[in-house]
Amino acid sequence: MTLRAVPRRFTPGEHPREPAIAARVGKLTPTRLSGWGRYPVVEAREVLSEDLERITHDVVLTRGLGRSYGDASLPPSSGHRVAGSILADRVLAFDPATGIVRAEAGCPLWRLNRLFLPRGFFTPVTPGTHYVTLGGMVAADVHGKSHHRDGSFGAHVTRLKLRVADGRVLECSDEEQRHLFRATLGGMGLTGHVLEVEFRLRRIPTPWIWQESERTPDLEATLDRLRASSREWPMTVCWADCLVTGPHAGRGLVIRGRWAAPDEAPATVPVFRRTVSLPPVFPSWFLQPWMVRAFNALNYAWHGPNVRRSVVHPENFFYPLDALRDWNRVYGPRGFTQYQCVLPSAGDPSRQRRFLSRLQDLRAPVFLCVIKDCGDEGKGMLSFPKPGVSYALDLPISASTQRLIDALNEFVVAEGGRVYLAKDAFTRAAHWRAMEPRLEAWNRVRRQWDPDGTLRSAQSVRLFGDAP
Amino acid sequence: MRVVLLGATRGMGRAVARTLAARGDRLFLLGRDAEELARSARDLEIVAGGGSAVEAAVCDLQRPETFAPALARAAEALDGFDAVVVTAGLFATQEQLEADTALRHDLLGVNFVATIQFCEEARRRLLAAGGGTLCVFSSVAGDRARKPVILYGAAKAGLSHYLEGLNHKFRSQGLRTVCVKPGFVRTGMTVGLKPPPFAADPDDVAPLVVAAIDRGRPEVYVPRIWRWIMLVIRNLPRSVMRRLSF
pLDDT tens for residues A377-412? Predict the structure, then answer.
């Protein structure tokens, strides 16, 4: 048998072997794209392929698992196509001597964790969910519970492979195209499509976490205990109750952890848990402040006054919310946003207390509040963390959300803080410029590599003045 | 187990290969793009823990002359093999296939003629070595003719038929065939199609396929629910099938 050679027609840049897929992608029907907050929504085409290099030819943006909360992973408007990286998930190299791993940008963090945890390696920096891609971790220059010690993810990235706006594919690092490299860490995918990521994993003594938690009666105590814990512990975070008013405002649980020593931990490798998905049945009115208040009070009371100590599963420690997939559906179709800002700790000691008062004066419906003390600013030219206290506040979308965030941004600008682009959906360009003195330097690098402003997102149109 | 995989650089084949590698099976990859094969081989080596090398050879369903040498290379590298898994194939929508003669020729040729030619080559080798498992991905589309997958489904129906026949004839000689019938699985192949209810991910499907290979089950629906869905669809009367649009 021979298959007769048949002449085929291709569009330039498409893989010549796959006319069928090329044709289908061309006619791809727009789908509803949104970030984790499910607001805003853009009807647009997302092109997916294992061959990430091919599909990043003629798109304005590459997105991963869509875990940024707002509009950072969305195209400017429905006419544009974005590339989806999630099918490009291969690990390409690993050196057990140095811990350096290289993988395609769509590789999800959970895959890396599950591959390397049993072998005694873990990422030095992880965000609060493992449903993120490496490309997304680079673009947002994510930080985690270890920020006060280890900085953000970019500090551990050794090399990147990028497709820049003119179509070239190149490698960058601290030695090669250094400015491009640093502009890409935290650059929200606007300096080039991240194709491959190389970074350093860290050796861990056991695959288990030694965790302690303690209850704190008010904001002062919460921040105090958080700071004290961070002096001795590699990983700290705090859950706080911002709905309770009066003297107990800002009470919370300070959680700290470290990798367990061999004599403390079980000899076994943790069994990776199976997750359940929250069904899409919740109406927008379902989650009400009184429910969150009750939950917060219960959570606080349940903990008890003593310090709790235990050896825990690393996925329960790092990713408590991932146990319930699609938990964002609890907010219903209205969606939610996360407002995350960092306020400097130097100078005025009353700043943190005033921030909480401001939140309560504005009657902000803070359904979840996570507080973290941040260490030094990283090398990413636009990365979020800087020395101070970071607040991550989950807020359901309502008619007053824009007003609320404007008011909070006024406060943050006046106090010398800034907001986190990976979470943002509402900040106005003027506020953003006022918060970000590094913007001009970053813009210069961006324009050098993309003079025509090809790469852009709904967020960059909103904040950086890009063409829609 | 020593397994040869055709089409494991992508989609469900990628997930099956990872499942096999994670439990320590030795793999040999066949595919049409040498660079892609090398990248997937590195990934699988790391999944396997870096112990043994995963080798690969170019084998293209559109170039039948590559079949025998590629399988010979695999046999040499693995010192014989116990199973061959075929996940390679083309997909296009009914509209595209109706409109495009060349595409229709390619798809029917690859999914039916070329796949069976490859399987014949693999079958001969497995039987010569005393038996083994031939696992081939067909589709639920081959179970009943449906309007959106008439041409694709026709090729898959032929493939399922062939595998059933092999099972009847050669099972007693030690050849175990596994005909995998996936329902809708979200892969690069189905990008742009609207996922129906019960759509699954490759990672959900892979363990079921590996279990079927281990047990030598002649036919397996993945996810399992499709067995019952197809039972219903197979028994719908013509008058109903004419009215339905799926």
Answer: 999 999 999 999 999 999 999 999 999 999 999 999
**CATH of residue A341:** 3.30.70.2520
Positive or negative torsion for Cα A70, A75, A77, A82: negative
**Looking at domain B2-243, does it have CATH number 3.40.630.30?**
no
- Contact B92/A at CB under 8 A: yes
The rounded distance, in Å, linking the Cα atoms of A465 and B87 is 47
Which residue among A2, A23, A115 places its CB closest to the CB of B47?
A115
Give the range of the structural domain holding residue A272, as residue numbers without chain letter: 209-435
Residues of B in contact with A96 (CB under 8 A): 50
A23 domain-assigned: no
Taking only the tens place, the pLDDT of each residue in A159-217 is: 999 999 999 999 999 999 999 999 999 999 999 999 999 999 999 999 999 999 999 99
Collapse the DSSP code of A100 into the 3-class scheme (helix H, G, I; strand E, B; otherwise coil) and give the result: strand
Tell me how far apart the alpha carbons of residues A203 and B153 are, in angstroms, rounded to a whole number: 50
Give the chain A residue whose CA is nearest to the CA of B32: A17
State residue A28's pLDDT score.
Answer: 62
> Considering the domain boundaries, does residue A40 fall inside one?
no
With beta carbons under 8 A apart, name residues in chain B contacting A2.
64
On whether residue A320 sits in a domain, the answer given is yes
Residue located via tokens 């397996």: B220
Partner residue opposite A49 with nearest CB, options B62, B113, B188: B188
Cis before A40 (ω within 30): yes
Whether ipTM exceeds 0.85: yes
Residue A455 lies in a domain: no
Whether chain A has a CB inside 8 Å of the CB on B188: the answer is yes
- Domain ranges (residues) in chain B: 2-243
Tell if the CB–CB gap between A25 and B192 is shorter than 8 Å.
yes
Give the pLDDT confidence of A226-243 residue by residue, as tens digits: 999 999 999 999 999 999
Distance CA A223, CA A228 (A): 9
Taking alpha carbons only, the member of B218, B210, B206, B140 closest to residue B178 is B218
Number of domains in chain A: 1
Please check whether residue A4 touches B, CB under 8 A.
yes
Among all residues of chain B, which has the CA nearest to that of A7? B102
